Amino acid sequence: MNAQQTHRPIQRIFHPTDFSQDSHVAFAHALKMALVHRAELTIMHVDPAVAPEGFEDFPRIRPTLASWGLLPESSAKSDVARLGIGIKKVRALAADPKQAIMHHLRTSPADLMVLATHQHEGGARWLHEPVAEPVSREMEVMTLFVPSHVEGFVSLKTGETSLHRLLLPISIDPPSQPAIETASALVSKLSVHPVTFTLVHAGEKTGIKELVLPQKAEWSWNQLFGQGDPVEWILAAGAEFDVDLIVMTTKGQDSVLDLLRGSTTERVLRGARCPLLAIPALLI
């Protein structure tokens, strides 16, 4: 199995925002992804009645790109297009942000969605787990979740990338090769080094020989094996190795137990200390 079979190009990126500080960090990741993939970035805000004052200027694309050293201070909108990206802003008047986001994805499908997500209930904003997780699961779109109160691997101030330690939970069902290929492609796009990929097997040793681990200078691959709750193993390994990103395939919720406590991916997300890239199995 090679990268061409498992990794799809990213041409359309979708970023819902609630204008919170957490969304600022997620916005930096969405913009960086658009730049490295030379993709179209759609930024959407859902408001129940009236858009906030200054909506047309937020998020501020050109000042952000200027602070990253990619545009001069007095740049024009046409200068953004010269970087190979397209920017769209969408305002949705709706009382239910989840339904508004899903409606947009049905009419304008995306290859990648970037979402800020709150790991604990509370706060006055709408982008909480009951929105972020169900949207990603029900729309079956590859999603980069940026949990609240984490800096992530893209600096909002400079645009610099710090993606050196990746964690990949390994399973047979759904297959994990797409996560390996996606993680490798992302690191290659961002041109970061050195990079350590840690594969976490929750008690599964069958199928290991079938995994294809791309090799490059300054890339290293580690493998861990454990018994018990895979979520506990994944979170423990993430904390132990202070990883910058978790990349995993997900089947969503396919059992009564999953419906009660959430899928493995969703449970990992709730305890993660870094962004998580979820790849729906149906995209494979």
Question: How does this structure look, described?
Answer:
The chain is α/β, with parallel strands linked by helices and 284 residues long. The protein folds into 2 domains: 3-147, Rossmann fold (3-Layer(aba) Sandwich), CATH 3.40.50.620; 165-283, HUPs (Rossmann fold). The chain contains 10 helices and 10 strands. A 10-stranded mixed sheet has the order 3-2-1-4-5-10-9-6-7-8, sandwiched between helices. Helix 8 packs parallel to helix 10. The longest helix has 17 residues, at 21-37.
Which SSEs are present, and which pair or pack?
Layout: H1 3-6, E1 12-17, H2 21-37, E2 40-47, H3 61-67, H4 77-81, E3 86-93, H5 97-107, E4 112-117, H6 129-139, E5 143-147, E6 165-170, H7 177-190, E7 195-201, E8 219-225, H8 230-240, E9 245-250, H9 256-261, H10 264-271, E10 276-280
Parallel strand pairs: 1-2, 1-4, 2-3, 4-5, 6-7, 6-9, 7-8, 9-10
Antiparallel strand pairs: 5-10
Helix pairs in contact: 5-6, 8-10
Q: Percent helix among the residues?
A: 25-40%
For the biggest sheet, the summary is: 10 strands, mixed
The class by helix and strand makeup works out as alpha/beta
Strand and helix order: HEHEHHEHEHEEHEEHEHHE
User: Spans of 5+ residues with little confidence (pLDDT < 50)?
Assistant: 1-5, 120-129, 254-261
Average pLDDT over all residues: 82
The counted number of beta strands is 10
* Count of distinct structural domains: 2
Instruction: Using the alpha-carbon principal axes, give the shape.
Output: globular
What CATH calls the topology of the largest domain is Rossmann fold
